[in-house]
Design brief:
180 residues; alpha+beta; SH3 type barrels; four-stranded antiparallel sheet; three-stranded antiparallel sheet
């Protein structure tokens, strides 16, 4: 054997000895940490909260008035001939489809000793009305017509659900004012 092979063999033997010395125990520090952590004080886990039994709730407000829905107009219960209430069964007239503040009196006519008022709707349709006709959305009935105004009585519902009568006047407007 030559010097070279002897040197190579010596290096190989030295590497084996070094490796054997290092490989005594693998991950010795990690195993020691795990052993030491078992000796540490353990935390307390709080007990689970007590579960209360489910108590069903009965909703009893079905009969109450819903404040978010518009009220229906109904005649009062036990309404006799003397009770004030609109006639909900009568046929509605065309001018009852408009709010009173949107209607304009633009003139009058007299035929056979009967006074008529000319009322203009918001869509510029002209209507001829007389006493007894209805105007506006509050059951307003015409009670008198003069050359400068139309007087009517409306039947409106107060906050308590009772009907009350309210007088309104539709004044004559000039054509120039009506077009503004």
């Amino acid at each position: 054997m030559g010097a070279r092979s002897l040197a190579a063999m010596a290096v190989t033997m030295l590497a084996c000895v070094a490796l054997a010395a290092c490989s005594g125990e693998e991950h010795h520090d990690l195993k020691q940490f795990v052993k030491d952590s078992d000796k540490l004080p353990h935390g307390n886990i709080p007990p689970l909260p007590e579960v209360k039994p489910y108590e069903p709730y009965t909703y009893n407000a079905f009969d109450l008035i819903d404040p978010f829905k518009p009220r229906k107009i109904e005649p009062p219960k036990g309404s006799g001939s003397g009770a004030l209430a609109p006639d909900l069964n009568r046929r509605r007239e065309p001018l009852e489809g408009y709010p009173l503040e949107n209607l304009r009196m633009v003139g009058t006519l007299e035929q056979n000793k009967q006074m008529f008022a000319l009322v203009r709707a918001p869509d510029n349709t002209l209507f001829r009305v007389k006493s007894g006709n209805y105007l506006g959305q509050n059951f307003g009935r015409i009670v008198a017509i003069s050359e400068s105004s139309v007087k009517l009585k409306e039947i409106v519902q107060d906050s308590g659900g009772n009907w009350e009568e309210k007088e309104q006047v539709l004044l004559l407007t000039e054509e120039q004012e009506a077009r503004k």
